[in-house]
Amino acid sequence: MSVPALSERHDPAPVPPPHPPADVVRLGVARSRFLKQKVMLVLPGIAARTIPPLLGIGLTLIVWEILCSGAGATLPPPSQVWREGKELILDPWFNYGPQDIGLGFRLIVSLQRVAIGFGFAIIVGITLGTLVGQSTWAMRALDPLFQVLRTIPPLAWLPIALAAFRNSQPAAIFVIFITAIWPIIINTAVGIRNIPQDYRNVAQVLQLNHFEYFTKIMVPAAAPYIFTGLRIGVGLAWLGIVAAEMLTGGVGIGFFIWDAWNSSRLPDIIVALVYIGLVGFALDRIVAAVGYFATRGTARS
Amino acid sequence: MNPYLQISHIDKSFARGTAGNDVLKGVTLSISKGEFVSIIGHSGCGKSTLLNIVAGLTPATHGGVVLEGQHVTTPGPDRAVVFQNHSLLPWLTVYGNVRLAVDKVFGKTKSRAERHDWTMHHLHLVHMAHETQKRPAEISGGMKQRVGIARALCMEPKVLLLDEPFGALDALTRAQLQDTVQEIAARLGNTVIMITHDVDEAVLLSDRIVMMTNGPCATIGEVLTVDLPRPRDRLKLTDNATYLGARARVLRFLYERQRRPAAA
Ligand SMILES: Nc1ncnc2c1ncn2[C@@H]1O[C@H](COP(=O)(O)OP(=O)(O)O)[C@@H](O)[C@H]1O
Ligand SMILES: [Mg+2]
């Protein structure tokens, strides 16, 4: 997945065809035998999908254990992480006071910040992208700027955000916003530019007004691009939140890592990393799935 | 009496570049109500440009189009277009594509139930009432073109504009669709302008065939009235003298008088 430059023209990513309808099976005497056969057919497929990743994870853990079990090892092996971080791993929802809460609660705080920052990025990004995408001159004027700004790492925005807002809460949200917005703007604008002349002609013959054109032609036609932008954006937002929280404090997962580092609780950090990775993965998949369902029909035919 | 649709002294040049950009020069044509007119000419001569000018999608450099006493300045549903590549919106179903047009044109004058009936009625006309919930990607090229025709017809246009509507279809599908169009035009009495490069199609469907010279500066070379009774049956026409005469005349125009220097 990449962020296309505004001036290029791309065809929308092809959307896979819908699943073929399942064969209709007649129920009867042969049913149980059929089921058995079916299971025998499906099992190797499941095995082929689940065994390699399990093997991969297992091997990684073993190698890690060996590397970190020696006398001079600086990092804890997985067995130690399990022993010392067991409570964190097994119970994400404990609550023993203001700064002593389960990782689940911390993730929720972080996710709330991401939701606010990313939500603003979606609204502002799609609006700006739509405006920019409609005007060749706006594109020429702003594309270089966007292409440069989008490469700035999230943390680099933080001092500016702190100076502007003088408060760490809005600053952290602003960092999310400013990190996530560029791919959304750029992809939306490219999507708008790539609306085929055919659809514009149809809209003209039907005399759609601006609002109808926006909702009935522009958004659906650009949706595959917009969702690509959102998917990149949500990944960046998640990268940004952890970094921002490490510096701004609070109870989010980012600050937890910083706190654990300051009190030398390395196993806790590793547990938090796993949680962060899993949540980031889930966010990416959720946006991808929403995009898949929202753009099922948008592939050009 | 003024004609129903008057195309007068149309010139069209495209601004970009220098040579060969005067596409149309002095195109004048009057069309009466209910008439079926085909425009035939070699590819690239400016047929689509002329149709787009009538549709209001492209402005003419000089001259103008008057429909029922009104100057054509913008596109509108009174001049519905069936585009060569169907131009259905892929995110809408067959029904949704037609319904969008019905809602837009009759949103204020018909009730919700009437608009549904109106949509289904036109899908029936083009024999597509059985596949209403499919998306364009799931139906054949001929079916897409049928839906495109339904979408245009449902607007009750004063003039129906068809830009090589069957150009991309195989011969059998094309024949079926020609019959459908002929049947609908007879039933509804539509005024139709159809662009084609198929001589048989032009003779079969048209009251008049407008033959265009090659560009640049393309214009109307010859107009042929096809004096055949309707409904026309393609099988019975195969040895009809009027049919064969008209066909020969269009062929002669295209391949003798307007033979292109490097025609394929
Ligand atoms: N938007 C445009 N800009 C510049 N030239 C154009 C444009 N549209 C059409 N032309 C030119 O006008 C000529 C006629 O095109 P067109 O009307 O599409 O031909 P036809 O439909 O008869 O095949 C072609 O030479 C084409 O290059
Ligand atoms: Mg053409």
Could you characterize what this model shows?
Chain A is an all-alpha fold and 301 residues long. Chain A has a domain at 103-294: MetI-like (MetI-like fold, Orthogonal Bundle). Chain A is 74% helix and 0% strand. Chain A has helices spanning 31-68, 78-90, 103-134, 136-149, 154-165, 168-193, 197-205, 210-248, 253-262, 266-294. In chain A, α8 (210-248) runs parallel beside α9. Chain A is flat. The two termini of chain A are 23 Å apart. Chain B is an alpha/beta fold and 264 residues long. Chain B folds into 2 domains: 1-72 and 161-182 and 193-264, 3-Layer(aba) Sandwich (Rossmann fold), CATH 3.40.50.300; 79-156, no CATH class. In chain B, 34% of the residues lie in helices and 22% in strands. In chain B, the strands form 2 sheets. Chain B has a 6-stranded mixed sheet, with helices on both faces. In chain B, strands 2-1-4-5 form a 4-stranded antiparallel sheet, covered by helices on one side. In chain B, α5 links the parallel β7 and β8 (191-196). The N and C termini of chain B lie far apart (44 Å). In chain B, 45% of the residues are buried. The mean pLDDT of chain B is 91. Classes of the chains: A mainly alpha (301), B alpha/beta (264). The interface between A and B is medium-sized, with 22 and 28 residues. Bound molecules: adenosine-5'-diphosphate (ADP) and magnesium ion.
